[in-house]
Amino acid sequence: MQILVERKPIGEIRVEALILAIFEGEKGFSLDAAELIDSGEVTCRPLELTLIHNPKGMATIRVLLAGAGRSEQFEPAQLSKLIGAAVRYLKSRSVKTIAFEMIAGRDGRDWASAAVEGAVLGSFEPDRYKTSGDKKSVESFALVAVEGMNEIEEGATRGRILAEAQNFARAMVNEPSNIKTPRAVAEAAVRMAAKYGLESEIFGREEMVQLGMGALLGVAQGSAEPPTFVIVRYSPSFEHSQVHLGLVGKGVTFDAGGISIKPAYGMQKMKNDMAGGAAVLGAMRAIAQLKPEIRVTAFIPCVENMPSGCAQRPGDIVTTMSGKTVEVVNTDAEGRLILADALAYARKQGCTHIVDVATLTDAITVALGHQRMGLFTNHDELRERVLRASEAEGERMWHMPLDEDYKEYLSSSFADLANVGPRFGGAVSAACFLKEFAAETPWVHLDIAGSAWLDDGRPHLCKGATGLPVKTLVRLAADWTD
Question: In CATH, what class is 167-478?
């Protein structure tokens, strides 16, 4: 999709469709829609879309009135959703050239970024492997500048970078697991790193054995596909900060549950169990282009969790890289095992702050539904940094408890820890497990199991992977000040 900026009167914009955001209780739009509003046909409710053909006095073929709700409640994240919904609506009608009139009185850079993000995210489809049917696409999306509005080009560039990074993560998660093996993820990471000037390193089984990553190797041993450990590094041109941010992403390319096998219903979606790893790689892609002033390193342990004659058994005990031993009570609680070794390695590499991202527990979906990610932490300041970034990007999170007495759920008579606790508080006990391996390093754990995948499309996003929380991770790095 070509992204354009137009600086001429709205009536002269020649596109197949022009999007106008309209607010409740306000009039004076570029198009006279008073009659439609007064009749009640158009209410201006959020995401309400009304298409008008051949508007008088305008060069465009169509105008799409896009309801934006109350002006005082409208934020850039809402604009991104609105534009995404509008683009998907128009694309379904074979519209190929689209423009959006920027909203007067709104800062050019942030709002331009949000609009472009919405357009690029909304245009994405999970149809790579379809060989029939009409694959519709949008050729261009133009921002029409309002008089006196500056920094639109800068915002449009940022929006494209962020949205394309998120779509990179979405496409990776959507890949079928017969193609998206641990080795394939590693190869994709190396290609991405080379393209954007990042350093990369891949560990195989031999390096993991030497490092003592017994928990990661225990999960991997049931699969014919060998594990990989992906490391991608970004360093600023002029390093003046001592901060080294580590991003750790769960990379289970398919999760059958191991010997504790999952039910057959819905198992096809377990290709998305590497959504955390994909989000971290997507974030690194954008970070390389936006160039924050702190060091950032990504760590993605990649495995398949399969049942076989070689698979680890319930009751096995593994020794992690940190030296702690773990009784594997349930082999379907594999994510925390591979993350334990990844967290230990990130600490060994000198990361001063760590954020891990994982589709870790069904329990977080029970607690928060599909609307928010669960946030757990051992460090209040880092928590606030992450929450500020998430709110700014519209990727909503909720701070969950991590009280010390939850650790009792993980007690074992045979090892330092069990990998699962009792039924209740499952998301919390999983986070408590990870906390043991973050140790004293400031750390945030994001459980994205409820928000990484859409079973049904939304007006602004198609079915499948969401790519969350790529934008939060990027903003966290970009806005970091000591």
Answer: alpha beta
Of 83, 80, 101, the C-alpha closest to 91 is: 83
Q: Which of 348, 328, 367 is nearest to 449 (CA)?
A: 367
Alpha carbon 71 to chain centroid distance?
A: 27
Query: In sequence order, which residues have a C-beta less than 8 Å from that of residue 217 and are 6 or more positions away?
Result: 205, 208, 209, 227, 318
End-to-end alpha carbon distance in the chain = 37
* Contact status, residue 270 vs residue 180, Cβ threshold 8 Å: no
Catalytic residue among 205, 233, 262, 407: 262
CA separation for the pair 23, 134 (Å, rounded) = 34
| Pair of tokens at residue 4 | 């354009």
Q: Which helix (H) or strand (E) holds 85?
A: helix 76-91
> Looking at 330-423, which runs of residues are DSSP E strands?
353-358, 373-377, 397-399, 417-418
Distances (CA, A) of 245 to 7, 21, 91, 109, 376: 40, 38, 39, 26, 17
262 annotated active-site: yes
Q: Which of these is catalytic: 88, 170, 336, 372?
A: 336
**Model confidence pLDDT, tens digit, residues 241-292:** 899 999 999 999 999 999 999 999 999 999 999 999 999 999 999 999 999 9
Question: For residue 67, what is the DSSP state?
Answer: E
User: pTM for the full model?
Assistant: 0.96
SS3 state at 162: helix
Long-range contacts of 400-407 (CB under 8 A, 24+ apart): 400/364, 400/367, 400/374, 400/375, 400/376, 400/427, 400/428, 400/431, 400/447, 401/376, 401/428, 402/376, 402/377, 402/378, 402/428, 402/431, 402/432, 402/435, 406/432, 407/432, 407/436
Which two tokens mark 52?
A: 């008008």
Sign of the dihedral through C-alpha 395, 337, 266, 224? positive
Residue recorded with tokens 């900026």: 5
Write down the domain spans for the chain.
2-146, 167-478
CATH topology of domain 2-146: Leucine Aminopeptidase, subunit E; domain 1 (3.40.220)
Nearest 5°: CA angle at 155, between 149 and 156?
105
435 catalytically annotated: no
Q: What's the CA gap between 352 and 55, in Å, rounded?
A: 57
Cβ-based neighbour number of residue 424 at 10 Å = 9
Segment 113-135, tens digit of pLDDT: 999 999 999 999 999 999 887 88
